[in-house]
Amino acid sequence: MNRPLQVIHSSTWLKATFVLAIVPNLAACSWLFGDQGTFRDRSDDYRKAAVEKKLELPPGIDADAIYDSYAIPPIGDNTTLSKSFEIPGPEPLSEDVGRENVRINKLGEERWILVNGSPGQVWPRLRSFLTLNNLSLQRVDTTNGLLETNWITPSLEGAMRERYRLRIEQGVQRDTSEVYVLQASLKAGLDNWPERSSDKEREELLSDELAQFLANSPAAAVSMLAQQTIDSSGKVTIEEYSRTQPYIKLQLPFSRAWASLRRALSKAGYQIDDLDRSQRLFYVNYSEELASGEEPGFFASLFGSGDEASAASVAYLVRVKESDSKSVEITIEVQDADDSDALEPKTLLKLIKRHIS
Predict the structure, then answer these.
(1) For the chain, what is the domain count?
(2) Three-state SS for 180?
(3) pTM greater than 0.70
(4) What is the pLDDT of residues 117-133, one digit of tens each?
């Protein structure tokens, strides 16, 4: 008997084919991405790593030429915390979040340009500035961060021939640079660079022009040579004498460190009540509420005066100790050891550190 011809609708056939195609694909995904798959998650593989024995070199090979660039320091002690806590977030890469892109700083007779960006980022912009102003270079020293121009004759009547030296170095904070300008005229000699500029007005004129150029020209290139040879790790760190004695290590001479610290205390929300430069001491008060600019609540203003509200701040001593001629150590301590509102020294030092420049 002849059976009637069965016609399968095309859409039904496509659906069936699609379902059948999914099955081997799911199996393939499991094979590729499962725990035993080719592309498995390897983020915890380091937990299974074993410590290998020390490499033994054949006789005659100098072992001093081989060193571990990423040596893991030994753990001094293990502490079990008695209660739960919240892990703090990482420190911001850019510490002074409110700083300007370019700023001219002055301390005594010294003047410099503070720029956001590592020396490797700022170096090409310095060269661009000299090129645009037709200042040819006689010497380029990337290792020491120096750019020295050839002798030029200013267009001013009676002006002496002059030349300029630009020096760039790492700023106090990471990802900042300091640029110093030195001007020398013929009265300084053909081969000598003076300690101070021969003409202060000419130095300041070029500094102002350079600062304006840096403010208007965003970083577009990086000098890898300058980035590698000029230290970019910053000059301010928090270290510890012991687990209970943290301090700020600031690689600046005392006169500049003192001025930088005074500015940083004010920016960080500390109230400077008094200071004694001869004793290297700041007498400050700090309150989290006052530092954040928060006004007293309704009941605080109803039952207490403004003086009583401000009395909630804690009095601290900030000490500056010279390590050597080029660095200082900064510590902070509460004046009243029994003050229960006092914050941890490390927390207070972090507030200061991020504003030092």
Answers:
(1) 2
(2) strand
(3) no
(4) 999 999 999 999 999 99
